[in-house]
Amino acid sequence: MIDPATASADIDLGAFAANIRAVADLVAPADVMVVVKADAYGHGLIPCARAARAAGVTWLGVATLGEARKLRDAGDTGRLFCWLYGPEEELVVPVAHGIDLGVHHPDHLARIAAAAATAGRPARVHLKIDTGLSRNGCPPELWADLCAEAKAAEDAGAVEVVAVWSHLAAADEPTHPANAAQLAAFESAVAQARAAGLTVPVRHLANSAAALAQPAMRFDLVRLGIAAYGVDPADGTLAADAGVPLRPVMRVRAQLLATRRVEAGAGVSYGHTWIAPEATTVGLVPLGYADGIPRHASSVGECAIAGRRTPIRGRVCMDQFVIDLGPDATESAGAEVTLFGGPGSPTASGWARACGTIGYEVVTRIGSRVPRRYIDSAVV
């Protein structure tokens, strides 16, 4: 673990709550599920889950049963949805703990029904239809059979079919033809489920991007992921177009460990992939790819110091990288550097553009060696 004074990821739970409320206002009367998978996209599972609940969120979503168990062990008793589990994972405890489970195959349904019998309570399930992502979800040709089996299991008291759901392939591109096709396929699947005798009290299709840009996809519940953390799902356009003022939740910062003067012609960092064209001052930032700083940021990423942008020079190393402070720099060791998420600094989306990736990856990959410091801008 790095000393928090040296480097940290500062998490603003006030901004997190404000983002949730802003999207909730937009999508009402649809309810909001805040997705806290992957350690809340790198922001901290338990603190963010608690902040979401305090902001009035009734549903949380996670990918894995391990994440769900951590939330239950931490005292969370609210509605909790989990959708990824392996063929050998034990399901009795999740059912006993009231964790809603995603189902996209009759084998899942049979395992869950058996677990419910052992747990002594019906399992809450969300039937997933593949509407065109071709990743998981029930293939359309098997959907009628899955619905019929779910109805039989519900009649037997083994399960309660809580929802029908699906996931979108191109929601961050609102005009992509896949969106209309998937919406139509989803509505058809819901109709089939109801024709099979299922009530389908909850329909959920929209992720952050669709929640912002596709009103017809909001249905009863939206799954709010990256937008809750202040990162636009479409590189800065969807939230602004929807009139939702997202605030960055994660600020990654560090102190300079050292500064030094380099002369024109000097090579910087491994391989001398950057050669100083003139004399300048460089600073050493104590974070590297072991901490989730993309190696693709080498010589293309930027930070901010003292209100100005400072480019990364040379290769990002395992534990450190070098920034160009400029020929007239006066900073010394201890000066504060913001990588992204602060006033006047690059955003996570800006880092993503520079590195050829997406904002999701930038925040999620910040590693456990970087300490999280929690603040609440609403009370400071």
TrEMBL record:
Which catalytic reaction applies to this protein? L-alanine = D-alanine
Gene3D superfamilies in the record: Alanine racemase, Lyase, Ornithine Decarboxylase, Chain A, domain 1
Q: Does the keyword DNA damage apply?
A: no
- What Gene Ontology terms describe what this protein does at the molecular function level? alanine racemase activity
Residue ranges constituting the Alanine racemase C-terminal domain according to the UniProt record:
249-375
- Listed CDD domains: PLPDE_III_AR (cd00430)
UniProt keywords (A-Z) are: Isomerase, Pyridoxal phosphate
PROSITE patterns of this UniProt entry? ALANINE_RACEMASE
- SUPFAM superfamilies, alphabetically? Alanine racemase C-terminal domain-like, PLP-binding barrel
Q: Where does substrate bind?
A: R135, M318
**Residues recorded with modification N6-(pyridoxal phosphate)lysine:** K37
Which principal EC class is assigned to this enzyme? isomerase
What InterPro entries does the record point to? Answer: Ala_racemase, Ala_racemase/Decarboxylase_C, Ala_racemase_C, Ala_racemase_N, Ala_racemase_pyridoxalP-BS, PLP-binding_barrel
Query: Pathway, according to UniProt?
Result: Amino-acid biosynthesis; D-alanine biosynthesis; D-alanine from L-alanine: step 1/1
The catalytic site is made up of K37 (proton acceptor), Y270 (proton acceptor)
Domain of life where this protein originates? Bacteria
Which cofactors are required for activity? Answer: pyridoxal 5'-phosphate
Q: Cite the EC number.
A: 5.1.1.1
Family matches, as SMART domains: Ala_racemase_C (SM01005)
Q: What does it do?
A: Catalyzes the interconversion of L-alanine and D-alanine. May also act on other amino acids.
Which family does the UniProt entry place this protein in? Belongs to the alanine racemase family.
Protein name listed in UniProt = Alanine racemase
Q: From which source organism is this entry?
A: Ammonicoccus fulvus
Q: What is the lineage of its organism?
A: Bacteria, Bacillati, Actinomycetota, Actinomycetes, Propionibacteriales
Gene that produces this protein: alr
